[in-house]
Amino acid sequence: MSAHALTHPLLNGAAHGFLGRRGGVSTGDLAGLNVSYSEDDPALTSENRALAVEAVLPGARLQTCYQIHSADVVTVSEPWADADRPRADALVTDRPGVVLGVLTADCAPVLFLDAQAGVIGAAHAGWKGAFTGVTDATLDAMQALGAARANIAAVVGPCIAQKSYEVDAGFETRFLEQAPENERFFRAGSEGHAWFDLEGYVASRLRDAGVGKVGMLGEDTYAQEARFYSFRRATHRKEPGYGRQISLIGLRPA
Fold it and tell me: Residue 42 maps to which CATH number?
């Protein structure tokens, strides 16, 4: 059984893939390529993670973090054991043979590449992380390794789409207070509610930060049950678990 990875031409200078739920060994509500240890048999999760790495950069060492919806970034210089993974929401490295991974289930995964400098990054951008600047912090960490923002390509992977993401008035007010022009990421919904464009907001933050090339996959995790895990969909259905997918990027060894 092989995992299925979506790719984007802006990241062709690195091994990468945005994976969904297809091709894994988990069963039941989590059927497919679930990569979260918190809801599944650890043996199945480990096998799914190995399948994901095999689909993107065979033989690479997978590095993930314990995600906390923050703007914190870790630079991977020496690999750590999975049990010792740091609390953060983004990773960067210039080390070949290491594959960076972020887990999502409606939040936006963002993969970064400066092919000229040989520096990569991966960020988990839920609304909290995106709002507080996880993508900006990732760019800063890449620059510290020699990357240049004008040379960086960044791609926003599968996440919940605006048509599926209804929020309350307090949520919208928070973004409008940050910047009035954020109004363009909201569409009026039912009374006291609006529909939020997470993907567009994250892409805009990247462009405003000086990223040279920005791409979006335009894949709605909520609406595509056969392809992606979704926290909001599982919550609406009162399902006991929701699973996670993984997005990966790695530098190929010379």
Answer: 3.60.140.10
